[in-house]
Amino acid sequence: MKIAITGANGFVGSNLIRHFQTAGHEVLALVRSVESANLLRNIVKTIVVDYSNPGPLYEAFCDMDVVVHNAGKTKALDMDEMMQANVSTTDNIITAINSLSKVTQLIYISSQAASRPSYGNVPVKESDAPAPLTNYGKSKLAAENLIRKKCNQPYTIIRPCSVYGDNDKDFLSLFKMVNMGFSFQLGKTDKLLNMIHVNELAEFISLCLMNERVFGQIVFATDTKVYYQSQIMRSIARALHKSPKYVVIPEVIAKLAFTLGGWYGKLFSVAVIVNKDKMKEIMAPGWVADTSKAKELLNWNPTPDFDLNIMETVKCYRALGWL
Ligand SMILES: NC(=O)c1ccc[n+]([C@@H]2O[C@H](COP(=O)([O-])OP(=O)(O)OC[C@H]3O[C@@H](n4cnc5c(N)ncnc54)[C@H](OP(=O)(O)O)[C@@H]3O)[C@@H](O)[C@H]2O)c1
Question: For residue 213, what pLDDT band results from cuts at 50, 70 and 90?
Fold first, then answer.
């Protein structure tokens, strides 16, 4: 199968490329910069594109069977930047694909954040009314809605929960803190979350390729288990051979830290993950998605070994000199 991947140089994109190539697919990597293209050139066929215009996207996609639209911003300075990255880009991709009959499927990598948190640990279904908490979640939902309204080709919208694994920089800070002997929980409730390893996500996306059962569908992608935050911290500590002190940080202190993070970002014009908007997601009661649709439509029944995956992630971070 010929598959184009946008955002090919990022965490999920680079792991997806490896997975698809191993499975024997012909992959085209779309990136925004020549530097990224140079880094990927020996690994995969690469093209530098300007996502702000459907023309170059049309050229890139014209011989493809499937387009996996994975590019996106997870943190931005403000809502305008977030909407530009996640919605305008998607709009141009849809315009390009709509005039290409060879492209059989658009797979959009959305996010659990486009949906809503779980309350009382009742899993959220794809059919539940979305109520995203953050600019990020709102922009991913707006992109989903645009696809549902405007895309003339079969599409599949995948909502991954938190993704971890090789080359991920978002969870890296947690690993670094535990490595320094510091483990914590924000607020007094130990929350339940979904997680998925990036290789499991790649496997999940593979099951969706040209699969008519998921045409026109939205599906949550999780490893089908739920994890307490404290359980995740303990697993990281075991993998690092550390016995950190587990500290419960009161909500008011956490709020202060996120507010200061947001001010820092604004002052130095950098998009930071520690900001007041992101705090809404982190302090939500829980993020538990219902997995029955994925099980039914995709036979998605993974057997995740979370501790082993965390150990492998530590190995990768050490090999890269990040820990
Ligand atoms: N990681 C997670 O836990 C998680 C969970 C759920 C969903 N997702 C979704 O998965 C996708 C990949 O995320 P990731 O974790 O791999 O993030 P990442 O490492 O930051 O990669 C994001 C990719 O998107 C590209 N990109 C960023 N802004 C763009 C823009 N304005 N126009 C075009 N391309 C842009 C980046 O290219 P440059 O390097 O050139 O900037 C990069 O290749 C995103 O759509 C994200 O919403 C991620």
Answer: very high
Q: Which atom, in ligand 1's list, is nearest to the CA of 113?
A: 6
Can you tell me the distance from the alpha carbon of 150 to that of 281, in angstroms, rounded to the nearest whole number?
Answer: 29
> Closest residue (by CA) to atom 45 of ligand 1?
72
Q: Give the side-chain half-sphere CA count within 13 A for 145.
A: 12
Q: Which atom of ligand 1 is nearest to the CA of 32?
A: 40
Specify the amino acid at residue 70: N
Architecture of domain 2-167+194-224+288-302: 3-Layer(aba) Sandwich (3.40)
pLDDT at 95: 97
Question: Closest ligand 1 atom to the C-alpha of 7?
Answer: 43
Task: Provide CB contacts within 8 A for 21, sequence distance 6+.
Answer: 27, 43, 44
If you measure from the C-alpha of residue 288 to the centroid of ligand 1, how many angstroms do you get, rounded to a whole number?
22
Q: What angle do CA 181, 183, 189 make, to 5 degrees?
A: 165
